[in-house]
Design a protein that fits this description.
The protein is α/β, with parallel strands linked by helices. The protein contains seven helices and four strands.
Length: about 140
């Protein structure tokens, strides 16, 4: 979360200086909203400033259905296609070692549903993002 907050702080500062900054979306997930919503107030400030669109996924809030980051990503395929394909944005996936594969599957879904790509084209775009440093994974 720290590096992403640093991105937001820098963009907020640049915007205050009158510089143009691009759109950022954060898909934040944890188990419980009440006890694990890291940096909640600061994130809301950046939403209010128009710097950030924030999606949350708290997996243990509903005991009947777990809801993860990859589920939130899948819900807006047009946004993901627009940010990552049309605008050439970057993606940072940070979390447990189980997270990257389902998030990548959600990206594939978004590129196919949001942009009409074939599965081969969607996979090729993800590989291109990875090899050019626009798709980064930090998992443990």
């Amino acid at each position: 979360m720290g590096p992403f907050i640093a991105f937001l702080r820098e963009r907020s500062w640049k915007k205050a200086q009158g510089k143009k900054v691009g759109h950022m979306a954060l898909f934040f997930g944890n188990r419980y909203r009440k006890s694990e919503y890291l940096m909640e107030e600061e994130l809301k400030k950046y939403v209010d400033e128009g710097l950030l669109t924030l999606y949350t996924a708290f997996s243990r809030e509903d005991p009947k259905k777990k809801y993860y980051v990859q589920d939130a990503v899948r819900e807006d395929p047009k946004l993901m296609y627009d940010l990552l394909v049309k605008q050439g944005g970057s993606m940072y996936v940070c979390g447990s070692r189980e997270m990257p594969k389902p998030v990548q599957a959600s990206l594939m879904h978004c590129f196919m549903q949001g942009g009409g790509m074939t599965s081969e084209a969607a996979e090729a775009h993800i590989v291109e993002m990875f090899t050019t440093g626009r798709y980064n994974i930090e998992s443990w």
